[in-house]
Design brief:
Elements lengths: L1 H6 L9 H4 L32 H16 L23 H10 L15 H5 L5 H8 L5 H63 L10 H32 E2 L1 H4 L8 E11 L6 E10 L2 E9 L12 E10 L3 E6 L7 H4 L4 E6 L2 E6 L3 H33 L2 H6 L8 H10 L6 E3 L2 E3 L1 H16 L3 H18 L4 H28 L4 H13 L3 H21 L7 H26 L5 H22 L8 H19 L3 E2 H4 L14 E2 L2
Parallel strand pairs: 1-5
Antiparallel strand pairs: 2-3, 2-8, 3-4, 4-5, 6-7, 7-8, 9-10, 11-12
Helix pairs in contact: 14-15, 14-16, 15-16, 16-17, 16-18, 17-18, 18-19, 19-20, 19-21
Length: 658
């Protein structure tokens, strides 16, 4: 036994053991048959597996149940969407790999402070509170972006407003011209009708002229007395109406010429839809209004006997110009219901409609006749009043009153009113014009100034001034009025052009255009002064922007370069825009700028010895840069030798011009 243990285990077969017992033989692996894959071709010997009927029914039931089940979509009402579960924690390598593969979503960048235009439309808008709340936590970049957006919105709104004003103004002018043309045609037609009426009147018999002079005088006296009596009678009737109808004085106060024409009682107000009676009313027709009063019964004591008292209460009152009265007769009916209503009238006031019926046919006919007559008379009176207003508008006082500054010139206004409208007719290019044409030209000039159409505005001013000079010989008043209005608008136009010239004095083309406009408007002195003043401001501004860091020659060099370059550019622009006869103003201006430079030079070198190298370097720099002025025709001796400035009394003689 010990010997076998020492040898260990062995897989070798002993010779005698095979004969004793037979052991199982382990063969090679055998393939287990599997069901074929979908789409695989079966061999001739392969047979598809058989599925039982019970298994087929079970699978069919499961598929039907799955297809008939409805799952709620996220976002539907009544559905509680569970929160997103956390990702399972994995090894660091997996997390790192996933992080490397999936892009990380960066937080969205804000576009700046939200710009709400409705906030600015609020009448109680407070700028300080708005800035404190909205822009409190904004950065500098966001504030600049917000300011830029506000400027864009302002510019866009301004351009839209200008376009709307231009369109509306153009349409208004066209309509006004068409109305004026129509009025002139109607005036001609009215004159022709008057001539026809006079011609037919002259063909009448002389029977009407048989009365004597005494009869005419007596008739005039009777008429004067009858007018006074008629006025008193109308007033008494109106006071009686106030007593009979409660609240009538509120609708119909005392007005000169107002009187009662017809009082009609026993009217019944009908429902306009069902034609059923609603209440009894009392209708009062005046020369300018129609009053409808409701008939009501007063309350009486329980112990009193007799018939109840009746009172009239004013309910509605309309002007005759706003009323349309229609007769609802059965012959003109459009349906069967209207045919059943007899002796009724329909009052139409705007979108409202009222129906009133009376049993007496004569009352309805009388009301319709008197209403038509009163409406025609009122229409004629309104037409006459409008014609009077038109004549008053055509008067000199009205046309001159459109310009408030003309009221200051009392002599011209009185002269225009005294001579009348006949002196206001003049000829322009073979056509007869009046002051209304002048006002139309002034309106067009104002429109061009508002739209900054400077070239067209200057041309209009020159044209109107030429017209004033042409009319000065035979139409002095019209010429004076035209010159007055043109000068006022030319001054306003020059102010706008001068503002543009001051804001853009560095652009040669813009300066030249603005100067030419001002010269054509006879404002050459204003253009020269505005241009030189603007250039002086630019020189001061650029000089202040030069920083002094301790090096005096460097600072003097920079200041000299800035100032002399700007002076040279100013001289070039001035010579291209103005005539040479105005060069004295330019030399005077350049001398003032040179004196300012020398003052700065002395202040900077006040504490430096004149024999030092720094002083000599600064003088050399000044001489070098001052040669730019020599090239444009200016030579200042002070710039060559600044020591000449020591003699203050002789400073004015230091100017020399080559």
């Amino acid at each position: 036994m010990d010997k076998e243990r020492s040898k260990g285990l062995s897989l070798r077969k002993k010779r005698g053991e095979g004969k004793r017992s037979a052991k199982p033989v382990i063969g090679p692996p055998r393939q287990v048959p599997m069901p074929p894959m979908p789409g695989a071709k079966l061999g001739p010997t392969s047979v598809p597996p058989q599925v039982r009927i019970r298994d087929k029914q079970m699978v069919a039931d499961l598929v039907k149940r799955r297809m008939s089940t409805r799952f709620p979509m996220p976002g539907e009402p009544g559905v509680d969407t569970p929160a997103m579960p956390n990702l399972p924690s994995g090894p660091s390598m997996i997390a790192a790999g996933a992080g490397a593969r999936l892009p990380v979503k960066q937080p969205e960048r804000s576009d700046g402070v939200n710009l709400d235009l409705d906030t600015f439309r609020d009448p109680n808008f407070n700028p300080d509170a708005f800035v404190a709340t909205v822009l409190a936590n904004a950065s500098d970049e966001e504030i600049r972006d917000y300011q830029r957006r506000l400027k864009d919105i302002r510019n866009r709104t301004s351009s839209d407003l200008q376009k709307n004003v231009f369109v509306n103004r153009t349409q208004f002018i066209l309509i006004s011209k068409e109305i004026d043309k129509l009025k002139s045609e109607m005036r001609v037609l009215r004159n022709l009708l008057n001539d026809l009426h006079n011609t037919t009147s002259s063909l009448k018999t002389d029977s009407e002229n048989s009365s004597t002079t005494s009869d005419l005088k007596a008739r005039k006296a009777a008429n004067r007395s009858s007018v006074a009596d008629l006025t008193a009678l109308h007033m008494s009737h109106l006071q009686a109406l106030w007593k009979q109808v409660e609240g009538a004085q509120k609708f119909l106060p005392s007005v000169p010429g107002r009187h009662i024409i017809l009082e009609s009682r026993h009217w019944v107000e009908l429902n306009a839809a069902t034609w059923k009676p609603r209440r009894v009313v009392h209708i009062v027709l005046l020369n300018d209004h129609l009053l409808v009063a409701t008939v009501k019964k007063k309350r009486t004591d329980n112990g009193s006997s007799g018939s109840p008292q009746i009172k009239n209460v004013a309910e509605r009152c309309w002007p005759l110009a706003e009323i349309e009265m229609v007769d609802l007769s059965p012959n003109d009916s459009q349906n069967a219901k209207r045919a059943q209503v007899m002796n009724a009238v329909n009052l139409r006031v705007g979108k409202e409609s009222f129906v009133y019926q009376n049993e007496d046919l004569s009352k309805k006919s009388e009301l319709l006749r008197q209403f038509k007559k009163s409406a025609d008379e009122l229409r004629k009176a309104l037409r006459a009043e409008s014609e009077d207003n038109l004549r008053r508008r055509d008067s000199m006082t009205f046309l001159a009153g459109r310009d408030p500054r003309l009221l200051e010139n009392g002599g011209l206004l009185n002269s225009l009113s005294a001579h009348g409208s006949t002196s206001a007719l003049f000829t322009v290019e073979g056509q007869t014009r009046n002051l209304r044409w002048v006002e139309a030209q002034m309106d067009e000039l104002d429109e061009r100034i508002a739209h900054r159409q400077f070239e067209e505005a200057v041309v209009s001013v020159e044209k109107l001034r030429g017209l004033g000079r042409a009319l000065a010989s035979n139409k002095a008043l019209v010429a004076e009025l035209i010159n007055f209005k043109v000068d006022e608008r030319a001054s306003r136009l020059a102010a706008v052009v001068t503002t543009d010239l001051t804001e853009n004095p560095a652009k040669k083309s813009a300066v030249k255009a603005n100067v030419q406009w001002l010269v054509r408007l006879d404002f050459e002195d204003r253009a020269r002064e505005a241009f030189l003043e603007a250039r002086s401001d630019i020189i001061k501004k650029r000089t202040r922007q030069v920083r002094f860091e301790g090096d005096v020659p460097l600072y003097i060099s920079q200041v000299a370069l800035v100032q002399f370059t700007l002076i040279k550019n100013t001289v070039e622009i001035y010579n291209s825009c103005f005539e040479y006869r105005l060069a004295s103003a330019l030399v005077r201006w350049a001398k003032e700028r040179a004196d300012e430079y020398m003052d700065l030079f002395e202040r900077q070198l006040q504490a430096i010895d004149q024999d030092s190298k720094v002083y000599s370097d600064c003088m050399q720099i000044t001489r070098l840069h001052s040669t730019m002025l020599v090239d444009c025709g200016l030579d200042f001796k002070e710039l060559k030798d600044p020591r000449l400035r020591a003699r203050k009394d002789d400073g004015a003689s230091a100017l020399g011009l080559k």
